[in-house]
Each structure stands twice: as structure tokens, then as C-alpha cells.
Task: inverse folding
């Protein structure tokens, strides 16, 4: 019941990855 | 937990999944969509903060055509620190605590609980990041809201400037404005709508509209390879 639908999950993964990159670069 | 701060925004979780759409082979898959969204705004002369693809679907129970989350790419903006609440205030601390908790939970849902003791969230979650995240929970009835209207009419909508966003009869446009966005563009494509947002005022130009049509030309017959 807590599963994130696939499209949103993929988008979230990308978002969190990019966010981590931005934090490292600043 | 991932709810918009604005109470009037329609929030519905739908089960649409673009990976199920095999009409054009890999043309619709998630990686391809992500690449297309990145291509649109990473190479742009304009400072677009994010790009979202709203995927159309049909809800047989309600006999309604809907637009739901297909994919999105958050590029960020120069002034990431813009927040509604004043830093240091109780409101600010509460808002940030809530956002970080949501992000931590999402992170652990995807990656599992952090074992290193390192904070998986880090910096503050800005209003524009939050606006993008909340968008993942939203959907629109065709004909309603900026994305729904663009899809229904087949005509792009381009709203630039605070006054224009506030006066547009669309809850998403107002939510965008209070989240720091100054430009919102919705371009209908084959089976959905591409939405672009920016924290800067970007006036209408044919360049990006043509680029969206080129990058999201779902009518192209390329053997399903994605071009």
C-alpha cells in the first residue's frame, strides 16, 4: 500500500540523485 | 504527507504508468522521457527550472480523460534559497522539518533506511523543489487547469509574470506563483502535455515551443528506437 507508482518512483530517484549532486557542488 | 500547502489544489493519486504504453516501443519509456525533458531545458538559453510531462489517460470508472504525472526533470534555479517563510522563524523551521521528514521517508522507501547515520536530505527543501515534488501527486481533468486546458484545446498556454499567474483561473498557476515561479508554459504534445516552469520571467517565443514539438514528436515513425 506504500508502494510509489513506477513513474513517480523513477522520477523521485532522479530528483534525489540530482539533489545530492547539487548539494555536493555547492 | 506529500500534500500541497495550498488547500484548493486537487490532489489525486492515479495509477497511470507510461511504461505500460507500448504503442511506439521504447519511445515512451521512462529513460527516454527523462532524456527528452533534460534535453529540452539543459540545452536552453533560457533558465527553465523544471520540465514535466503530463501523461493523458482515460479513467473508465468516471468516464473521464485525465492528465497525470508521466515524468519530470528538476534542473533547479540560480536563487535556490527563495522560500515563502522567513528563515529562522518558527514557521520556517516547521515547514523545513515537515519537508525534510517527507524527503527522508521517500528516500528510505526508495533506498532503504540509512545505515551510515548520514542525513540523506541535507540542505533545506526550497519552495520550488517542494512545488515540483507535490506535482507528482497531482492530476487534472482534461479541460481543467493550465495543463488540462492546453491538452483539451491543443493550444499552448504561456503565462509569464506574477500578475498573470495570479489572475489565471488555475489553482496550479497560483500555487506556482507562491512557490516562486514566474513563468509557466504548457505545450500539448501527442499524448499529453509538456509543462515548463521558471523562477524568471520568460516571454513567449517560438523557439522553445518548436523544440518541445520536435523533442516530443510522438508522430515520428522511427522504428520505436526513440530517435
Result:
Amino acid at each position: 500500500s506504500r508502494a510509489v507508482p513506477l513513474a513517480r518512483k523513477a522520477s523521485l530517484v532522479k530528483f534525489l540523485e540530482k539533489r545530492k549532486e547539487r548539494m555536493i557542488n555547492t | 504527507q506529500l500534500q500541497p500547502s495550498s488547500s484548493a489544489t486537487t490532489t489525486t493519486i492515479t495509477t497511470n504508468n507510461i511504461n505500460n504504453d507500448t504503442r511506439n516501443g521504447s519511445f515512451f519509456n521512462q529513460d527516454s522521457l527523462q532524456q527528452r525533458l533534460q534535453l529540452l531545458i539543459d540545452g536552453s538559453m533560457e533558465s527553465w527550472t523544471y520540465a514535466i510531462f503530463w501523461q493523458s489517460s482515460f479513467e473508465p470508472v468516471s468516464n473521464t480523460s485525465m492528465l497525470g504525472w508521466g515524468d519530470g526533470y528538476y534542473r533547479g534555479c540560480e536563487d535556490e534559497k527563495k522560500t515563502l517563510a522567513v528563515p529562522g522563524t518558527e514557521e520556517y523551521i516547521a515547514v523545513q522539518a515537515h519537508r525534510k521528514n517527507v524527503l527522508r521517508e521517500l528516500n528510505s522507501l526508495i533506498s532503504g533506511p540509512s545505515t551510515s547515520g548520514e542525513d540523506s536530505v541535507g540542505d533545506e527543501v526550497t519552495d520550488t523543489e517542494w512545488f515540483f515534488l507535490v506535482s507528482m501527486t497531482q492530476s487534472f481533468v482534461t479541460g481543467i487547469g493550465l495543463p488540462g486546458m492546453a491538452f483539451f484545446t491543443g493550444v499552448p498556454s504561456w503565462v509569464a509574470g506574477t500578475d498573470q499567474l495570479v489572475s489565471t483561473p488555475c489553482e496550479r498557476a497560483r500555487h506556482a506563483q507562491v512557490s516562486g515561479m514566474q513563468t509557466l508554459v504548457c505545450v500539448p504534445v501527442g499524448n499529453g502535455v509538456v509543462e515548463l516552469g521558471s523562477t524568471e520571467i520568460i516571454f513567449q517565443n517560438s523557439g522553445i515551443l518548436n523544440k518541445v514539438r520536435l523533442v516530443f514528436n510522438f508522430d515520428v515513425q522511427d522504428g520505436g528506437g526513440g530517435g
Observations:
- Chain A is about 75% helix and 0% strand.
- Chain A touches chain B at residues 2, 4-16, 18-20, 22-23, 26 (CB under 8 Å).
- The radius of gyration of chain A is 11 Å.
